[in-house]
# Entry
Amino acid sequence: MDIYGILEKVRTEKPLVHHLTNWVTIYDCANIVKVLGASPVMAHAREESGDMASLASSLVLNIGTLTPEFIESMKIAARAANKKGIPIVLDVCGAGATKLRDEKSFELLDQVKIDVIKGNTSEIARISGENVQTKGVDSVEVEKNLIELAEHLAEQRNSIVVITGKEDIVADKTRHFIVKNGHEMMAHVVGTGCMAASIIGAFSAVHKDLAEAAAGALSVYGIAAELAASESRGPATFKEKLFDNIYRLDRETIEKLQRIG
Amino acid sequence: MDIYGILEKVRTEKPLVHHLTNWVTIYDCANIVKVLGASPVMAHAREESGDMASLASSLVLNIGTLTPEFIESMKIAARAANKKGIPIVLDVCGAGATKLRDEKSFELLDQVKIDVIKGNTSEIARISGENVQTKGVDSVEVEKNLIELAEHLAEQRNSIVVITGKEDIVADKTRHFIVKNGHEMMAHVVGTGCMAASIIGAFSAVHKDLAEAAAGALSVYGIAAELAASESRGPATFKEKLFDNIYRLDRETIEKLQRIG
Amino acid sequence: MDIYGILEKVRTEKPLVHHLTNWVTIYDCANIVKVLGASPVMAHAREESGDMASLASSLVLNIGTLTPEFIESMKIAARAANKKGIPIVLDVCGAGATKLRDEKSFELLDQVKIDVIKGNTSEIARISGENVQTKGVDSVEVEKNLIELAEHLAEQRNSIVVITGKEDIVADKTRHFIVKNGHEMMAHVVGTGCMAASIIGAFSAVHKDLAEAAAGALSVYGIAAELAASESRGPATFKEKLFDNIYRLDRETIEKLQRIG
# Structure
């Protein structure tokens, strides 16, 4: 897989990546897309979410601070995206924590076509129908073969499934990638999961094989995190360097460091 | 008071700290809780704010960008927290600036049990019934003995009262702490007040004596600020180093620098 | 024009700059006002947006994540500001991207008095009645003499018009300034446009000649960006240094570096 090739396409084509996301990490989601070289936009009003989605090259949905009204705006955006064949990434942030999150996640998955479902282990387990209680938005341990879990959900929902964690898993029905890039420091910064979805959104906008796009995105993100960790003494410096490194990544660095199994 | 002991408990127990807070500093509130070692969550929909509060170990409310609907979600969360004995910190951000803020602050204080009331001098003066006009969300000078002010409100509302400022005051009906840690640079960054409430929330989640929890939290925060100021040349670098230092704080540093009177 | 004199007035008078802005860059808008030495506040509830505007020294409106309800709150704030002669800056963020943005921008311009209209090239073109399709919130090229465009809109709406770009244009009916300060790196960070409006808001709060206030604000901002770029290796470090430099700017630096034509 030519990961740098996809990144270069993002930088050249500057796709518009539309988000309906949570209010906590919305800036970071926008900014990670920006430093990647793409063009982020966030427009959640039901009166324009569909129009904006129609202009975009991909759509990222994140239920981190959902309300029922917000989910309706997501559906409007998603239907517009579906109509035009624009890929949709759904981050099921906090699924398993409350009844509302579960219900609305299933509603989205049932009523619109989601191309990439992304979550941490406990979120994806819950979306797959496992009886897991998520603690807020952070992951809890799941006793289950994660690749099987991902492949099962991919089959069930006819989409790509991404499980983020120490190693990230990207699966469709027939194959899977294990992305080994990344750094432990990512777990000490709010929003690294949300930003992962945004990068996947940007890569999906320019590369048709969405499993490759997701795996490539996570590898690029993880490589930047590894570089950032080596330049920082704490989580806030780390985050700053993460953005800087994504902006600067070149072919040589990516090809030297990428670890996808 | 073994402040480091409380911090260590936060790091070990990783309590879930639920927030219904303002949209300006929501990321920083989440991130300060994260770098402290706890687990932040923000869920404001009335359909889940109570469920999430029931899962949490403490609840932080902040009226910085309130709406009447948002206050209703706060009440739902607060009632769920009250029912389970989960401590609630209320930041009366901007009280005294508008009629809405005053009314809604009093509504919250009257209708649910608040465990820690936190504000700057003019906000707390207003909540105590003094006729003070706050300028936006920044403090104005109040001609009044601040310890008396805090103790009076603590008595009146049967809660801990925190007045932040050059020196922070933490009072209950019978005793008070004066926290002398901190740095002038905190006044040049948006959100340092809001983050103080979040740290108090995290400490309250693991330490039953809430006056000690609040004083310890403010001391830890202030120590990190002192260290950050010595490493930075401006407010943005200062803020980054503040997060880094909270993440790194050890027993030796805290015991050397803590100043609580 | 004594730009430093205006900045010094901001630092001394610490005007309250009220915002009804978007949820993506709201923290940065608040923080840029803070490091400038002024006092930011964000209060969007219709029940208090007018009260808060009445307390303020300027009002900044930004439609980046508009909803119809949010626009109603803006109108309430704007009417209160108009009544008291408090200057209003409107950032027509994303105008031209969707029907909603166009309609609501025109509604605001028709129903309240806006003192400074600010946007990038494609946004201002659209607001002037040109048939331009904006891509999300980023600018597209416009084949048109930009000074004419600005002056035309200034005449039409009886207000100051600011077009941000590689060089910024500030125009009223009879004269214009071209601000040549700034740095290419600003285009790689989310929110630099929004922050420009906030700085203009702070300068407008203390300097009656609003064209001078806007040009001075953009020059100060651009100078800080130039200094920041020379101290950083990527967009996130750049942003941090931008805040630090605004905080530190002195007369000597400004007078040496200011480039206004």
Summary: The radius of gyration of chain A is 17 Å. Chain A has a mean pLDDT of 96.
